[in-house]
Amino acid sequence: MADDLKRNIIGRGRLIWQGWGMTAPAADIAFLLGAIALVALGATPLSILIGFIIYLAILNTSYRFSQKYISAGSDFTYVGKGLGGFMATFEGWNLFFGTMFAYAGFGMLGLAAFFDIFDSQIVTDYLWIPIVLLLNVITFFILYRGIRFSTSYQAITGVAELLILIVGGIGLVILAGKGNTLEVFNPVIAKGGIYGFIHSLTLSVVTFIGLSIALTSISEETKIPRENVPRSLLISSLIIGGTIIFLTYAMTVSWGYTHMISFGNSLDNGLILFNKLSPVMFILLFIFTVNSFMGNNISMGTSMTRIFYAFSRDGVIFPQSFSKVDGNGTPVNTLFFILAISIFLCLSFGLYFGPVTGGYVLLFADAFFSFLIRSISSASLIVGTFRKGKINLKSLAGYIIIPLISIAALLYVLISDIIPLPSYPYNFAAIIGIIIISAAFIVTFYTWIRDPERIGNAGSTSIEEILDYDVSS
Hints:
Layout: H1 12-23, H2 25-40, H3 44-66, H4 75-83, H5 85-114, H6 121-124, H7 128-144, H8 147-176, H9 193-209, H10 211-216, H11 225-255, H12 260-264, H13 269-277, H14 279-313, H15 332-353, H16 355-388, H17 393-416, H18 426-450, H19 452-456
Helix pairs in contact: 1-8, 1-11, 1-14, 2-9, 2-11, 2-14, 3-9, 3-11, 3-16, 3-17, 4-5, 4-16, 5-7, 5-14, 5-15, 5-16, 5-18, 7-14, 7-15, 8-11, 8-14, 9-16, 13-14, 14-15, 15-16, 16-17, 16-18
């Protein structure tokens, strides 16, 4: 039998900053923004803005489900409720690979690569390896201490990071002077025009996409979850979206929107710009960028321990031992497993591609899993709504139209990353994503043939759920 997670220990404030930690705005600006700029060029602010709008459509699904179901399984459970155990199991496999790739690629390899701005020997002399190992171990012990300890850390450092970024952004806009322009919202200036701009949306959406999992996966440990989780999703999203969009604009016009190739090729673009404001701002941005990467590790690690716990509790993907919870309220066996897989991925991709490119490859591959996960979840919301048969004009937008828009947007961006295949090494990432997703479906189907009852149970467990909900409410 599964152990229970601790109840009623997380309030709305901790949820909001847990979402901030997952999105990691300062780290996004240091790591992802450069990769987006290499394709979007001067239209990088527009790419981030459109990526955020697409994300809000995606968020609608988690918002609606979180009002009805309380489960550590997050999208795994949501799919089980709407589409059944087979699709929940398939969703679970995609969640496993997607979260692990993002965890290793961004928070671990991304931070190790960030240190390279001070000394190139960190990469050339393989000094990034002990850094990655240390990051994994530090994150492990923070998560081991329990969710109240980790969310306290997120709240304190998150507020400080927000203040630094806003003050710095205002300074950069002032510094840009006549360089402030609306031309950065013109998609045709992207590399390759409109098509290149669409391609840039892959990482722009990934910038925001993990936030919903960060909050919904800890719903069982939240006070008044059906009220606090959905409200925190909206509040956290607006704070994060506004901050990243503003900072992206400020950095683009301050750097010069016609010179974004050099911005994308510079690992320390944010530090260069903040140093123009003040050496103090330079130091503060460095400190909080490092902390931002760690915040992502903590939020992502917390989510993975809970989601994998839910897999085990429902008897799919992982063994029953993964649902063991220790005195701190931590699914401890899942935590050891995550540590081992993360180190394996970091070393494998880091040694083959180098830590910078290896991190980007993992994140690009993660986009395939993440987009598919959200598409399936949105489909589950639509199907579940029709199965309840309680549709009216008031509920039509939130339960049918917006989920359809999010599916269409996600699949369109996803297909644009396959046809034609991008250049090396991102073609490698695309192939990895396609192969693993195909293998996950085959494994799910094989397991369903052998043990349909076990597969049928996947995604079935939620706490204090509303069994007969009305979508018009």
